[in-house]
Amino acid sequence: MSVASEVGWARDPRAAWSGLAAAARRSGHLVVLLAVGVPLLFTALGLEFLDPDEGLYADIARTMLVSGDWVLPRFNGLPYLEKPPLLFWLAAPAMTLVSGEVALRGWSAIAALGTVLLTWRIGRHLYGPHAGVLAGLMLATMAGSALYVRKASTDFLFVFCLTLALWGFLKDVDRPGSPARFLLGYAGIALGMLAKGLIGVVFPLAILALTLAWVRALRPRELNLGRGALVFGALVLPWHLLVALRDPALFGFYLIDNQVLRFLNLRGFIEDDVPVSTLGFLAVTFVWLFPWSVFALARPATPAAAEGRWRPLAVVWALVVVGFFAVSRSKLEYYALPAFPAVALIAGAAWASGRDVGRWLVVALAGSTAAGAGAVWIGLHLTPAQALFGLGELNVYYRILRDQALPFPFESAGPFGQLLVALGAALIAGWASAAALWFTGRRRAACGALLALGAVIAGLVVALLHVVEPHHSAKAVAQAITGRAAPDDVVAHEGSLEYSAALPYYTARRIVVVNGERGDLDWASRRPEARGYFLDTDGLTRMWTGSRRVFLVTQHRPPRSVTAQLPAGTVHALGKFGSRWLYSNRGS
Questions:
Q1: Number of compact structural domains in the chain
Q2: Which residues, in sequence order, are bridge partners of residue 513?
Q3: What are phi and psi of 358, to 5 degrees?
Q4: Is the dihedral of CA 403, 406, 410, 413 positive or negative?
Q5: Cβ within 8 Å of residue 400, ≥6 positions away
Q6: Tens-digit pLDDT profile for residues 250-286
Q7: Quick one: which of 197, 367, 372, 427 has the fewest CB in 10 Å?
């Protein structure tokens, strides 16, 4: 058979040319998405681990690799089932190839890029090629993508799994009769559960159920439920059964306390987390989706009936995610991440059609000019109290500091003010350029101006991470310890260990926790294997005056630290490393 006949040339040359043109267009779109997405998503992954959280995940992955136990995640030697294991399974082998920082954050970046490509495919399917590539580009240039792709966490991994699940169902809707119909979607749901827990099942099922109810296109017997259940069970059941058999109490904690009671804010132990209000959650969601959140209410082109049948999926997707957490009693600022692709689809479709874009550009220009001018003015006069307030609106760690009436943890608010000034200038210039280009008929250039604004914001996010790195990183103090400590010496940490969670990773030691039972290790601290690793002040005093050398790491300023209660003359300051003081019961 000739090549011409294989592509249908002999039968219909025009159809063949059309197919080749479509393939070339797809390849061109892929190149554009990679050219934009890779630099934006894969730079600055090698920053030191920023605690809380990042070092915790690193220690779990390292422990899996060293111990060979791939079933039970452990942090600082104790079971840790706040998160399912998929991220750790992926990161542990990668640690043999690249640094731990890149191994962990690299999976966030890979998942984010994969989500960009899946969003492109979904956009093509629902709205056409132009809308698809715009949706992918918009997802890559959202402010929240710039920040959370550089955070070692399960979040972007879950976003990818959710998007994969929805694409797996969408692509097979019009392919009846195939034994493999919808199986990719069921696999995505299963992987989502291994990435994030029960929410990995709840979200795709709720989105699909509501979309199917809206569209009224499929009956239950058409969903390939039998084979789908087999795929789901084959992926999900082995790990869950192994954990349940090994430790039923731990499995109950994971399933009930961590999955259900967390949503209701009724957990069985005290968390330091300070949830955001519903209004605060909606406001910060708008910020993370910026600049494309402006177009969340813009309309796409009116489709033909068959072409647009499944378009409600994007709207339902966004509403389910944002609505779910809006009514939850326990929510943090980044919980709307799973809605990012949906909003990108809506905004991409709006820009492809041109409907409502001019109207929202005018609104955004007015709002961003005011916000930009305000950011410049505040940045030039920023005080530490104002900086702490602003950081607290965007990050739970700083809300905890604010809630506990702790001081601004940085030497100066100056670097934050400089970033605010730069952000304000970028907002004014970006939206003014986009509006001017749009209303002079250069619509692609207008979109390009906002894509460039997103890239500038990404650069400012990276700059912000460099500013906060010395405060959040425990690497410097860990290196100071490893350069001094003998194998039998003790390393202790004052307060909840998650605030210096990278200590076990960077020192490769198990850490003694002083006055820090609450938080993520509260439940594990009551287990038999935790005995001797959680001390109160009296316990530390006995260890401090014993025969072993003890190193104590603390973020508490000297008057507030437990060191003030240790015997006089036994506390030797070894230095301050970032935001952490290092002491020992022996001189240097």
A1: 3
A2: 493, 534
A3: -60, -40
A4: positive
A5: 272, 273, 274
A6: 888 788 777 776 666 666 555 566 788 899 999 999 9
A7: 367
